[in-house]
Amino acid sequence: MNATNIKIGLFGFGTVGQGIYRVLERSANAHAQICRICVRDINKPRDVDAPRDIFTTNADDILNDPEVNLIVEVIDKAEPAFEIASKALSKGIPVVTGNKAMLAQHLPELIELQRKHNVALLYDASSCGSIPVIRNLEEYYDNDLLLEVKGILNGSSNYILSRVFDHGESYDSALRHAQELGFAESDPSFDIEGFDALFKLVIITVHALGVYVKPDDVFTYGIANIHDADIQYAREKRVKIKLVAQVVKLDQDKFTMFVMPEFVTKSKYIYSVDDEYNGVVIRGECYDRQFMFGKGAGSLPTASSILSDIMARRHDYRYEYKKMNYLSRPSYTTDVTLKVYVRFSATNILHVINFERVYEQYISDNNNYVIADVKLSELIAKRERLNAPDLFFANIPQFYIDRD
Q1: Are residues 195 and 334 in the same domain?
Q2: DSSP state letters, 318-369
Q3: Contact status, residue 86 vs residue 68, Cβ threshold 8 Å
Q4: CA-only gyration radius of the chain, Å
Q5: Which of 90, 122, 154 is the last residue of a domain?
Q6: Which among 108, 345, 75, 329 is positioned nearest to 212, based on CA atoms?
Q7: Which residue is catalytic, options 100, 150, 200, 323?
Q8: In the chain, how many domains are there?
Q9: Does one domain contain both 387 and 242?
Q10: Which tens digits make up the pLDDT trace of 176-232?
């Protein structure tokens, strides 16, 4: 690619798209300009005053424009984003995207398109906003010594939990403030039910271990059902509840992954990751723990990550997916035992879940809880029944605690 002549076709001009426009205006060394923008509604009011004549509502106006040599896709829908990305890659046009839902659901096809057409797809912005997790896993941790990637991958849910535990707000009040500030959507389910973190974890796992796992195969449980009783229990134990995503290598042959609220003690790095920030712990055989911290959401943090990928294309950078070519890669398993806290009232959880061992059980007039061991496969098998509004699950961490 001509280092002085990056011509961008931009899909989407919402919060992130406008952030990209602003960031490019400030970055003289990017040597890149947005020459076309595709949106659903040209007349929609926007905060950024871009020239009207570069807007279009027809994707083909950009995909068939010979001047465009880089597609940047930041729309909010998975399937239209996949159609744009796959068409561009098939035409030999490199793509930069931040669409984690699209990537998590279609990464194998997209990797094959990259190989077939010898073209690059970059997406550091899809996971943890401004934190360069993917490129670090791809380049620095490009060996089989990695044991675990674990962290707070969703800024919206973390902001809500921070307001609850650090500022004494109620969950409903914290959620409302997150929506007012734009950290959570009017329908916050994508964030608070854990799907945003799940999609990021699927992408991260490809670069951490070289294995793709379908999102539907991963146990995901969010914070939507958290109750004052859970918050009070955590405070009594002097821990915080965080929504944590993790992929853990169990041995050389097996790994597991899941997204769940977790009781986090003060000794853990992610205990102090508050507000809309993300924090990722990468653990390895020889380097113990390394920690990455930064803003995980918002217009400019995400745009800065997009800019990094745009500038990487000046040097013809692409992901090599080295770990996917290893002769021996670990396989995904749900045959692993977790220790969990389960709060319940109307639902008799002891009749729903086959616990392997119950350590503690508390019964009261309003709420009950158990601390117990359970197979991850059992949680997946029963997950439809675990959505009852009177239930809340939290993980009590056990992996690698002897190394902390």
Answers
A1: yes
A2: ----GGGG-SS--EE----EEEEEEEESSS-HHHHS--SEEEEEE--SS-EE
A3: no
A4: 22
A5: 122
A6: 108
A7: 200
A8: 2
A9: yes
A10: 998 888 777 778 999 999 999 999 999 999 999 999 999 999 999 999 999 999 999
Mean pLDDT over each residue of the chain, to the nearest integer: 93
Judgement on whether residues 102 and 160 belong to the same structural domain of the protein: no
The answer to whether residue 41 scores a pLDDT higher than 90 is yes
**323 domain-assigned:** no
Domain residues for the domain of 79 are: 6-122
The CATH number given to whatever domain includes residue 42 is 3.40.50.720
Amino acid code (one letter) for 34: I
Integer angstrom CA distances of residue 301 from 15, 62, 97, 248, 304: 11, 26, 14, 28, 5
138 and 100 housed in the same domain: no
Amino acid at 254: K
Same domain assignment for residues 349 and 216: yes
Q: Would you say residue 352 has pLDDT above 80?
A: yes
Query: What tens digit of pLDDT does each residue of 48-77 get?
Result: 889 999 999 999 999 999 999 999 999 989
List, edge to edge, every strand of the sheet that includes 70-73: 55-56, 32-38, 6-11, 70-73, 95-97, 121-122
* Single pTM value for the model: 0.95
**Residue 211 burial (C-beta neighbours within 10 Å; 0-12, 13-18, 19+):** middle
Residue 315 domain-assigned (yes or no): no
pLDDT tens figures, 296-335: 767 788 888 999 999 999 889 999 998 998 868 999 999 9
Q: With 0-12 CB in 10 A as exposed, 13-18 as middle and 19+ as buried, what is 224?
A: middle
Establish if 101 belongs to a structural domain. Answer: yes
d(CA 204, CA 179): 27
Whether the CB-CB separation of 156 and 184 falls below 8 Å is answered with yes
- Tell me if residue 116 is catalytic: no
| One domain, residues 271 and 369 | yes
Element (H, E) at 188: none
Can you name the residues that pair with 374 across neighbouring β-strands? 338
Strand partners, 150: 246, 281
